[in-house]
Amino acid sequence: MSILDSKIPEGHISQKWTDYKDHLRLVAPNNRPKIDVIVVGTGLAGAAAAASLGEMGYNVKAFCFQDSPRRAHSIAAQGGINAAKNYQNDGDSIFRLFYDTIKGGDYRAREANVHRLAEVSGNIIDQCVAQGVPFAREYGGLLDNRSFGGTQVQRTFYAAGQTGQQLLLGAYSAISRQIGLGNVQMYNRHEMLDLVKVDGKARGIIARNLITGEIERHSAHAVILCTGGYGNVYFLSTNAMGSNVTAAWKAHKRGAYFANPCYVQIHPTCIPVHGTNQSKLTLMSESLRNSGRIWVPKKKEDAEAIRAGQMRPTEIAEEDRDYYLERRYPAFGNLVPRDVASRAAKERCDAGFGIEANDTMEGVYLDFSAEIKAKGKQAALTSGNHNPSEEEIIKLGKKWVEEKYGNLFQMYEKITDENPYETPMKIYPAVHYTMGGVWVDYNLQSTIPGCFVAGEANFSDHGANRLGASALMQGLADGYFVLPYTVSDYLAGDIRTGKISTDSPEFEEAENHVKDLISKFLTNNGSKTVDHFHKRLGHIMWNKVGMGRNVQGLTEAISEIAALREEFYKEVYVPGDANELNPELEKALRVADFMELGQLMARDALQRNESCGGHFREEYQDAEGETLRDDENFNFVGAWEYNGMDINQSELHKEVLNYEYIKIAARNYK
């Protein structure tokens, strides 16, 4: 049995990482070309890791299921990336970023990892600027910052509403250089379907060429998984349709513990669901909460009239609007953390004040009219017009908003056919990010030696809730500034190992396992599509393992998913052949893993008898509907060990979270 040794270094929190790095083992430059490293996933964490290790001289094999690393889902991030540079001179520091992240995660993150993240955050910005990332700048030429939820400082660097895209292009340029030099071998349109262990160590993967269907063996001295989160277990989420948990889950089934699977982030600013045939949801950047005010009608009859199409939101008088976040949380207002904002929206809609015209009433307004007027007046004064007309103010205000958020407003209008400059946006919470993932130690190594996990695929940095603009920060921190040290320390023991053979029994067993599963799906005499089952799984997950959870719903979810899994293997129909491009086969393999994960998520949520961050147990809330943690009994990371297809047999291991430098307290954003 693996032991949960987090390998947190001794010493003061501010010196742990520096001192630790100074004593890690090294691989000399002349020995690095003798060592192979596999990187699975080419988002920010994967591209950064592959580029960095390639630059160091290792032989890197990088895999992505997309047609290009540029298609990784990191490209979809909009609002920005955090760093403690204090450019706005508003009191930010490494400690404040550390503190805000721990508090934002509802005191369920590992102190040492989070402080390291805050320490290296400034280096990320310098690295990206050097790559040519076009961060927004203020009038004097310095990089601009804006606020995000859960903080009272401006530390978010951004590139309009397409920060993820610009950062990914920077990382892509770095990995492309290494591909050109021959240090990185790129495998596009390849999907990892199993992890191979030899003598207990991760020594390679089994991958499927998605164009030809060929099953391939790839060996290495270490494997790094950078494959993102598992939000698509809910079917409807803000994730790209192809995003999946397969690589991480296969590692789990080979012995890597899976930590805190119940921690799922519901993002408060997404475009509401519009129909039963919808296949994904669209995120509207959290940065919009800098300028937009969130509200619902104060009167139920006004909400009913809006839903019936008898009234427009612009007809609701100011005194008849409930700016409920500003009312409930005056200190942070619309910039409370995502889990807090999401639950508040759900509470208003459940109470009958929702404004979206569908059966669920799921929708609130994000209104920019006040910001347009304020910035319009400011722009007029700046230009010397001290007595502007209302029309001039509105025109100038819209221009300011367009410069700041224009592509986001354009995207919203294309999707909804409504002009957000004139009519408030409709938003509602949706599944976005997953804080749980493969358990890793301080080195980002899983319980399988040689299997490292970075970015959203691991559990390590966000606790029970991720603050906005911290995903990009973690991915690049792991890839550029952590893994090059910790992976090298591990590989120092492999300079005499030589090439890892793919002819071993372990590779043969793993390949046959993959082929058998593919054959099982293609020869199944079912009659229902993969999406049929995925939608049903998503319905169970959203209703019973979603924003609100309780004993009855979670217990039902476990048994309902078990029955659905059984039906899935009997009744699913996968057309086509194994030796061709077959998207339905790809989906079937991924949904099979989602089924198992969904059960584990419900089990994890059921054992955690408290509310914290994105895990909201309805039985554990205070009189005002806020999370009620149990720090005495649940101040731990719940890491699950796989023990067979019956998820009920999975064994829970606990890593107790010791807080030495931050005092645990009730979260208060009021």
Automatic annotation (TrEMBL):
Record bears the keyword Transmembrane helix: no
Cofactor(s) required for function per UniProt: FAD
Principal subcellular localization: membrane
GO molecular function, one term: flavin adenine dinucleotide binding
Keywords in alphabetical order: Cell membrane, Electron transport, FAD, Flavoprotein, Membrane, Oxidoreductase, Transport
InterPro entries listed in its UniProt record: FAD-dep_OxRdtase_2_FAD-bd, FAD/NAD-bd_sf, Fum_R/Succ_DH_flav-like_C_sf, Fum_Rdtase/Succ_DH_flav-like_C, SdhA/FrdA/AprA, Succ_DH/Fum_Rdt_flav_su, Succ_DH/fumarate_Rdtase_cat_sf
Keyword Transcription belongs to the record: no
Family stated for the protein in its record: Belongs to the FAD-dependent oxidoreductase 2 family. FRD/SDH subfamily.
Entry protein name: succinate dehydrogenase
